[in-house]
Batch of 2 targets.
Target 1
Amino acid sequence: MKFHSVSLFVSILIMFGLLHGQNLPIESEPVQDQPNSIRNYLMSAAAEVTQSSLAGINSLEDWEAVRSERYEQLVEMLSLTDVPLKGDRPPLNVQTTGSI
């Protein structure tokens, strides 16, 4: 009985052309018919942040003035505020448990 159901499933797949390499349409762009969708909002917000990330920075002096603030923002975004990123780090304490 199990063989019969498997063969029926394979027959259905062949009938619909899924096992013959038929290309199925894959959309990589979101459908724009819902302007209030969360995906569209997040994509536009990310594009705005990307486009304005270097606004007001026209020279090395401008960058050096905001560098530490941007670094702190990056550390916060990556949730690394509790990780010691500056100063001496503790030894790794590597132990070999076996070899091949």
Target 2
Amino acid sequence: MQFADRAARYPGLPAAARATVEQFFADVHAAKPELPVWVGSCTCRRIAAPTRRRAAPSAGNRLCELALREAEIWGTLGLCRGSTRRPAAAP
């Protein structure tokens, strides 16, 4: 709500009004715009397959990022507690 109030004061942003979902659809129905009609599935098959193929590597990347973050936190904590020992180089 606060963002909407601030955004109303900035020039160049489109006008917006606060309303309920029911009011929004009532206004659209009253305006009777010519809306597109979809038939069948709205899923683009060219996009869905690559997304599934990237899911496992993305999950692995997230796990690696979490492990790296945890290692950085523990390393920083060790330095803060006075440790000067560095981890051994990876093989």
